[in-house]
Amino acid sequence: MAADAHPPIEELAARIRAFVDRELIPLEAEFLKNAAALEPVLEAKREEVRKLGLWALALPREAGGQGLPLAQFARVSEELGRTPTGHYVFGVQAPDIGNAELLHLAGTPEQKEQYLKPLVAGRVRSCFAMTEPHTAGANPVLLSTRAVREGDEYVIDGHKWFCSSADGATFAIIMAVTDPDAPPYQRASMFLADTSNPGWKFVRNIPVMGEAHGGYFSHAEIRLEKLRVPVSARLGPEGAGFLLAQERLGPGRIHHCMRWLGICARAQEELCKRAVRREIAPGKRLADTQLVQSWIAENAADIACSRALVMQVAEHAEKHGFKAAREEVGIIKFQVAGALQRVLDRTLQAHGALGMTDDAFVAFAFRHERAARIYDGPDEVHKLSVAKQILKRYR
Amino acid sequence: MAADAHPPIEELAARIRAFVDRELIPLEAEFLKNAAALEPVLEAKREEVRKLGLWALALPREAGGQGLPLAQFARVSEELGRTPTGHYVFGVQAPDIGNAELLHLAGTPEQKEQYLKPLVAGRVRSCFAMTEPHTAGANPVLLSTRAVREGDEYVIDGHKWFCSSADGATFAIIMAVTDPDAPPYQRASMFLADTSNPGWKFVRNIPVMGEAHGGYFSHAEIRLEKLRVPVSARLGPEGAGFLLAQERLGPGRIHHCMRWLGICARAQEELCKRAVRREIAPGKRLADTQLVQSWIAENAADIACSRALVMQVAEHAEKHGFKAAREEVGIIKFQVAGALQRVLDRTLQAHGALGMTDDAFVAFAFRHERAARIYDGPDEVHKLSVAKQILKRYR
Amino acid sequence: MAADAHPPIEELAARIRAFVDRELIPLEAEFLKNAAALEPVLEAKREEVRKLGLWALALPREAGGQGLPLAQFARVSEELGRTPTGHYVFGVQAPDIGNAELLHLAGTPEQKEQYLKPLVAGRVRSCFAMTEPHTAGANPVLLSTRAVREGDEYVIDGHKWFCSSADGATFAIIMAVTDPDAPPYQRASMFLADTSNPGWKFVRNIPVMGEAHGGYFSHAEIRLEKLRVPVSARLGPEGAGFLLAQERLGPGRIHHCMRWLGICARAQEELCKRAVRREIAPGKRLADTQLVQSWIAENAADIACSRALVMQVAEHAEKHGFKAAREEVGIIKFQVAGALQRVLDRTLQAHGALGMTDDAFVAFAFRHERAARIYDGPDEVHKLSVAKQILKRYR
Amino acid sequence: MAADAHPPIEELAARIRAFVDRELIPLEAEFLKNAAALEPVLEAKREEVRKLGLWALALPREAGGQGLPLAQFARVSEELGRTPTGHYVFGVQAPDIGNAELLHLAGTPEQKEQYLKPLVAGRVRSCFAMTEPHTAGANPVLLSTRAVREGDEYVIDGHKWFCSSADGATFAIIMAVTDPDAPPYQRASMFLADTSNPGWKFVRNIPVMGEAHGGYFSHAEIRLEKLRVPVSARLGPEGAGFLLAQERLGPGRIHHCMRWLGICARAQEELCKRAVRREIAPGKRLADTQLVQSWIAENAADIACSRALVMQVAEHAEKHGFKAAREEVGIIKFQVAGALQRVLDRTLQAHGALGMTDDAFVAFAFRHERAARIYDGPDEVHKLSVAKQILKRYR
Predict the structure, then answer these.
(1) What pTM did the predictor assign?
(2) H or E segment and range at residue B235
């Protein structure tokens, strides 16, 4: 794709959809059996994507990406979200996309050279070590990982989990408290660390909903034991950790919503296909029953209004910045996660016993996307935060 | 307002909002006691609106309105919907706005002169006699009112109800079967009839949710007993009744959704105001509690995504016609009606006992807007219809 | 009915059901038009009930009632709840039944003679003045009505509302703070006062969901202005107000749940009757559609599990006292109120436009029983209280 | 346990609860990693249960069980349901318990000797081959597996799945059409077949929600290819297949409900434990927040009313037979499955990220018990069936 001109977004989306349908959806059965074992195959698909000029569409140009505006990437992301490997194969997968944006935003020229370039190029993978098993992520006061300055180094100790994709990652961005006496939101800083660092102790890939395959599609538990990094490995100023995390999470939440819309769309397709095929009495299909019809319509409503709102918020955020869109981003985070869960639940129910099996796309989505209402802030945290912003206008 | 140039929509909305806040919301207490008795006061307000150049904004210019595009009227309508008399005072109230559109679309020059002109000017009111107590409105085959041609006249017999605003209306548009043997959707025609016609038997204002005040804010039961109209009183071709009804209902449903968004917005305002005022323990307000906060956020999400979708559909319908937007109009009809009910329910609950009384806006809205999920097609009819349109793409 | 032997409960329930069907349900149309005007007719029905030996079944024998055990009254109450006048006509209506229990429990012989006897006999009516418009009822600290001792009298000042049935009541039980410095739950006391007392200022019958008919079926706003009562009019010890209120509310909440089950049962009957009658296409009834069938089943489930639990709790409370059943009573209060709202909502929807009119039982129930989730403690207060009791077992 | 006298049920339940807490819950982590590998350990636990006299409590005495009445077993089953291995270790696990009841009911003395005795003793396992991948189980007309009589044998061909516990089972009960021209409910018969029969082709253990461990805790896909059984292997009369299936499913559904109540109870325990432990701000626990408190209360209500109804239905079914209780069994099937899903969803959400991992009980239950709304008839089939039974009383 030429760097200067994006083709009309619907044309781009159609190309991507065709690729997803032809190249990626057929891999799902294999993916479900062993996601890690599929990585070489996915690597080949990534190469094709690069050749097609569709690589890293949403990443900043200066970082080697293609700079697709957020509202357009929303459209693309919905296509990629239709299959679990979509974003990965097109080089726009979490957590790398978020890490790339962080590096682009706050990295030194040396950090960009060392970490950002190979990351955007897809030559390495990364992870983000923020969540801790024993502290509530929504409360900065509780963050317990410490980074203590010793001369030209920081020594980091802590316990992290849900380090997505840490297994196989080359480097990590670590969130740690540098000044426990500072005001809560100025206590932490971010650090770049190679996973080959001897202080980076990989504990396990956490079994999530029964699965612990490893590789990109995994979530690790990590212990940081006297992990030493040079001062030059600090990402951004000391004390800027939460500020940077917010910068990362704002677009990150929109990215999640856009991906969820793709999962919803795929579920609805699978439901409709199943409904027109499945015979429930001679000459009568699931699609002929009122109950299944009403689920299809409810899915359509959940999807349509979530999509309309996400597009609006993406445009607003792009125009006025994520800070201005904070309230709306909070709303879509829990609204779309809720819609996703309802859509998947209806779709699973319409599949009957098949819906419980890995022969069906919906079973995978149902169990793993339950996390949508939890990660990057559980529904409740977003609801309370949105309400407080609204109530300010009445006090 | 100059006929040629609409001021930027947000400026227009702000002017209307100020009028609603200053002139109409203070009338609500009186309105709830006796809506009919308030009509002279409302007439004076209408006169002010005319002077401000804000009359009949959404009606076609050729008919004497101001031709505001649908997506802009959506914004205006949300402001008007904040109080029960808003649309009436601004001359854009159902059923008159729908009848005006019908007359504009299908009326002869004489019909327009006689009926449309005074209607748009607000000098007379009208009603629409379609719904029947003993037949299911969603099924054209069941329509039982008959119009039999006798020479230059039609003789109409039937039983109608939910003739909104029939009490005090000058004329009615009546839906009646002219050819029971035609294909279902070609059986009926529409007729204009004066309510002074001796065949127009006013039975009663139906008590709806405990109220039967009469006047504009009422719903009548009517018997048509050998009601005779000249052939020239037929609106549109013979057999075009359902076609015209669809033309009327498409924009009508969007109009309802836009008005409901106004009710939602007002409810949310009332909830927030109540929450910051109501003390539940010394120094602690309702607004400080998680449960009320979560309701405020859920209201915000219901409103935000409904509004985003309605706007999108209004733009789509305006650009490509209501026929192209049929599936989406079906979706917003049940989606926004559902959001409305949820918003009102949360708001009422947050009001406690006060929410059950006519001292609170929400009590009126809660009981009357329960009808939103029923009129112009119950949720279920829209859901099944939307699903069938979606499923066509899979068969 | 002989004082010593209750007939088997199902036989008793069947007799009552027959009376309700024959004598009371036919009065509903009249009742909805003007409940106050119907009182003379209801008085005659009460006389018939007395003759049938079915009067005041649930009241204590010593107080002139028939002492039906709570779990048996639950069954009876479900029959009475099928129509709005049921409990009233059988002499077991709130607030009188609760006031009678209070007088029975805490009244002096003189108080019983003067107030309890005529109340149980149905010769007078009473009311209970506890709720205040400007304080949250769930928090005893906020109660603002004051009773100040002056010699042999108390002087009471305050502002009350939702004094149900105050219009036409002969006397009231008033809750007022006697010692603002006592521990919160020992601050208030109860007082008996005649409504002819010059300090009892009747402000208005509050319009509730559009209705303010007056008479038994009303809710008043009252001002207490230097209302003087002799010390002998205090009900129970000074400071025992909240304790007594709890004694009154425990069984009161079970009584509400039992009545709500009757409303649910009636709604389900109306839904089924409507479903088998209403034609939606030639030869096809509402009852033949999956969506209406699923509502009927969901109603049945809501009713069946609520009923099973209410019965169990009634038995438990009767055996071990209301204090032991406190957690369970909290659960049924919000569980059954929620089931009631769902049942009424489904039933209304199945009625279509008819469901919005006073031609249908459901419209009355829908608007008035919305209060079920609010009075005697809103859902939220009960939920938090239940949770705290459960959590105690884990701390 | 003496065969003649059951200890009071609460004492029995307490003994079992203690065993579950001490012996089985600690095995859960191992179980989640590899259920099949745990079987030898479980075998030892079963031996302890036998020694304690708690084996096969719910099975008929004549079959070697202990004949615990259904309503008492409900109480026991709730304790066993608290951990995934409970029923298995106590010898009352599906599908064996249902197969045992079938053999007890319809088996010949030879069949009982050969199959029932070792089954009840726990020396062998069995499976039930009814569900087919390509036909809707709710419709008998669609059953496609055929059993053709050839001399003294039946030759069975078909395709089955969700043969729970087929992996490792010694024999199967197979449902097959013997007379395709009979009235629908008389077309099928049941057959006993050893899994060593060459016509029994084990295809795979179906991966269910990401897991395919094999052994008792598995669901197999099976092909029946010219599987030959002697006529003496038919279970019950020819054509009695559906009748027997109903006999099996009636109590089976109550058994499921009772087990689900145990899962609910356990989830609620885990939620409460987590809530009192998890710090969300200094000195503030999850248990101190309104939202988590409201979930705990909602869980309590869901559990309490489901339990009350299940107990009532169990008593009714035992007294009057499953046929008389058919409507109620249909209600509890979807009511309790729904309550289960809601309870698990709230519990998972309260766990945050931990709830997605196999470190938490709830993750396993959330993904696997989604099937509760599907197996033994999906919610929708039960709802429609319940409604039709209710509506019969109005036609």
Answers:
(1) 0.96
(2) strand B234-235
